[in-house]
Amino acid sequence: MLKSLEHITGKVEINRDLIFLLVIGGLYSLGIFLSNTFVNIYLWKQSGDYITIAMYNLGIYLFQPIMFILAGRIAKKIDRVIVLRLGVIFLSLFFLSVLIIAEKASTYNFLLGSVLGIGYGFYWLAYNVLTFEITEPETRDFFNGFLGVLQSFGGMVGPVLAGFIIAKMTANVGYTTIFTISFILFICAVACSFALKRRQAEGDFHFKRIFIERHHNKNWRKILHAHVFQGLREGIFLFVISIWVFLVTKSEFSLGMFNLCLSGLSFVFYFIATKYIKPSLRKKAILLGGVILYFSIYIILFKISYVNLIIYAVVIGIAYPIINVPYASLTYDVIGKAWKAKDLRVEYIVVRELFVNIGRVASISIFLITVSLFPAEKIIPILLVVLGTGHLFIYFFVKDIYLGSLRKKEVPIKEQLTDEKNR
Predict the structure, then answer these.
(1) What is the structure's pLDDT at 410?
(2) Whose CB has fewer CB within 10 Å in the chain, the N or C terminal residue?
(3) Rounded to an integer, what distance in angstroms lies between the CA atom of residue 13 and that of residue 139?
(4) Prediction pTM value
(5) What is the pLDDT of residues 343-389, one digit of tens each?
């Protein structure tokens, strides 16, 4: 297998750890996209209540940054592979818990969200750091490109396959089936993690020092504030749109098709954005992507129909690559030029994740308060208009970031791929 891949990549030498890290990433993507897209719908069908769904998502985004901090400390003290294994184990436990609890899942919404948040935190911290350590400059393009293909495959095939399975089976048998498949996929990922070489940790964990570094580095401060506003939009969009698609169509398969349109367009435009958005165009692209994302809301605001939702999926499938590619690159450039980035890359990853989730938690908290005070059907459109400005505000923070001449960075942090494509 190694020789076959080396033949494809030319003279680039592919090592065993890189292959297994790709396999783990592929299993993760397929498992998450297959099932987690439908957990919100599963909970909705049991409760019919927005607050139940919001509390589930609040549990995810409260525990994810906490676990990032804990995982960062463990990664610096023990072993990155152990942290990755813990993440996949907790993700397995999440789907196992959903299977065991079954009809009472909505009762334990916050607990389930917390378990998933713990899994996300451990998994993504370890995967980001291992990507840096296992890949070399000459293998990085192959790794990121091949992982992107695997993630896109999971994003396109997973939801449609799950929607088809659920639609063809009676009662909750379909949900039980897809949750079981995801559980098996994560167990396979755990098994693959034992093939990775142990990576001894070194150095102390300086989380507090990098947290306060924003007082000394204005570029770091601005990019962190931008991530808070990114989280403000993602917080409620991650679950509201899925529920709207289901309410309009009453069909899990239609939700799967919505995700197929979104993932398919994103797949194509990520390639286009990567090729054509050069460093000199980054800020303009961020502004353009933010504007398109914001005004896409109005497609579904006044008339919610499945056709309008599909058009919305197409538009944001185009818009997200336009903003995410230059935004991620700019973030990495800021980190790459920051104080002791090479030695403290784990801490920079953790702090960035903390600020994204501050925005997400604030967004869901606002949602919970307002939905408790006002009718959901009236207040949710207003919240989408107000909190939907999040990605638009990113430009106003990054427009004044100046880095001087850029050289190759030592911090190739992979952007996380969520189950809802950030919506």
Answers:
(1) 45
(2) N
(3) 7
(4) 0.85
(5) 888 889 889 999 999 999 999 999 999 999 999 888 999 999 999 99
